[in-house]
Design a protein that fits this description.
The structure is a single chain. The mean pLDDT is 90. The chain is mainly alpha-helical. It is 25% helix and 0% strand. The protein has one domain. The structure holds iron/sulfur cluster (SF4) (2 copies). The site of one iron/sulfur cluster (SF4) has 12 residues, from helix 3.
Length: 88
Amino acid sequence: MDSKEVIPIDMAKAESMCVCKSCPTYFDCDEPLAFCLYDTGASGCITVGRGCICPGCPVYGASGFESDFYCIVGSEEAHKNPEEAIAP
Ligand code: SF4
Ligand code: SF4
């Protein structure tokens, strides 16, 4: 089996698997988790990066993601197509 096989993960499942709450950058302002899959921009309240643990998240590995700081920059898609990203 290809070790880089991508497994589609929906938002609800990603939220349950997301490890953001263990990240030094994260703080809880009552937003949904799984910023990597947001289609509405980035977090509206997290603005200061203090490290990102996304590469250790099961969603990250399963989805074949390559970026980080999704809470601040926006989704994986927004990283790849910044001109289509929605400002937070
Ligand atoms: S990759 Fe990052 S933002 Fe996405 S679910 Fe995992 S910890 Fe959360
Ligand atoms: S997206 Fe990355 S930097 Fe932001 S809270 Fe999640 S793990 Fe931390």
